[in-house]
């Protein structure tokens, strides 16, 4: 379960009381914004690169996104090359 990343790193979703109830989209958004590369690779390994890319595209294309411009740029380049 991808939400298990919060058990060792609760600061990734510091504002959520019950971290196990977060959706995959919310979990990935927190990893994209606050996680490190190890957190991301763990998520990619668990979900698969195609699923992670789909979640990223959904988050990026929302009317109001919480992803930082540098994060969006980096992962656009990353997914173009590897997904």
What can you tell me about this protein's structure?
The chain has 83 residues and is mostly helical. It is built from five helices and no strands. α2 (24-34) packs across α4 (49-60) and α4 (49-60) packs antiparallel against α5. The longest helix has 14 residues, at 69-82. The radius of gyration is 12 Å and the shape is globular. The mean pLDDT is 88.
Q: Strands, helices and their partners?
A:
Elements lengths: L4 H4 L15 H11 L2 H11 L1 H12 L8 H14 L1
Key attributes of the depicted protein:
mainly alpha, 83 residues
Radius of gyration: 12 Å
- List the quaternary state of the chains: single chain
Question: Would you count the extended β strands for me?
Answer: 0
Estimated helix fraction:
55-70%
**Globular, elongated, flat, extended or rod-shaped: what is the shape?**
globular
Contiguous uncertain segments of 5+ residues: none
What is the compact description of this entry?
With 83 residues, the chain is mostly helical. It has 5 helices and no strands.
């Amino acid at each position: 379960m991808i939400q298990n990343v919060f058990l060792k790193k609760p600061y990734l979703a510091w504002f959520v009381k019950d971290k196990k109830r977060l959706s995959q989209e919310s979990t990935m958004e927190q990893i994209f914004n606050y996680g490190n590369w190890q957190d991301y690779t763990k998520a990619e390994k668990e979900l698969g690169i195609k699923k992670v890319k789909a979640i990223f595209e959904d988050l990026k294309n929302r009317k109001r996104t919480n992803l930082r411009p540098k994060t969006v740029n980096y992962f656009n380049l990353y997914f173009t090359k590897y997904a």
